Amino acid sequence: MRPSSSKKSRNIPKLTYFHPMPNPPHIALFIPCYVDQFYPQVGIASLELLEKLGCQVSYPMAQTCCGQPMANAGYERDTVETGRHFLRTFAGYDYIVAPSGSCVLHVKEHMPRIPGMESEQEQMHGRVFELTEFLTDILKIQQPEGEYPHRVGFHASCHGLRGLRLGTSSERHDAPFNKAKYLLQNIRGLEWVELGRKDECCGFGGTFAVTEEALSIQMGQDRLADHINQGVEIITGGDMSCLMHLEGIARRSQQPVQFKHIAQILNEAIR
């Protein structure tokens, strides 16, 4: 990832489907470790998409792991210093945006209290957003103008769905909504495929996939089968960790379905 925006060298299109802000917000792009190491194209797509939407985007080079894997393994108190580093690294930006619901949920709700930085930590909670949440709630995109002629199935990751409330889940009696669907459903040619069990866990769960391998694989196979049975061409989602798990199962069973982060689809569709 490059350290700062390349916006000056681009011809940014004038878009009419979101409410423009008086001044372009300065975004710090927060990229999870697994995206940085295995799926850098997702980070690039997130950067390009935000720039197309008129944001000034920087990638703070000092960022490291947010501490989520350690916290998930039961060592939450040992992530204090990664939390302190996060707060220092992302200070001074209007917003912090990440293409990952699980990492955003960690820094918002599971990062332990950082002694001496209580005020900074409290302020950070209102500035950090998962990508689709930022597009719908802050930029207030109405109907993205683009084209993407594919049948798309969406995997709703548990942290985003049940932690950040990026959509309704079946165990709650809420009015139905889905922020990813809101962004994708009006793109020309894109067919949003409704699944039989639209909010079921894929079985990844971070360290769960390691400690409970057999159960994790079975859950992933069931989740993948729902997409395959509906004739999905591309499986998308907001967390590459879940998509990585499903893609591994798909490749081993030689399923032809493709996998793309929602940032990639939006970036490819919007010209």
TrEMBL record:
Task: Please give the InterPro entries that the UniProt record associates with this protein.
Answer: Cys_rich_dom
Which Pfam family, any one, appears in the UniProt record? CCG
Cellular component GO terms, alphabetically? cytosol
Q: What's a Gene Ontology MF term here?
A: oxidoreductase activity
List, for all copies, the residue spans of the domain called Cysteine-rich: 27-107, 152-246
The protein here is known as L-lactate dehydrogenase
Naturally occurring in which organism (per UniProt): Mariniradius saccharolyticus AK6
- Taxonomic placement: Bacteria, Pseudomonadati, Bacteroidota, Cytophagia, Cytophagales
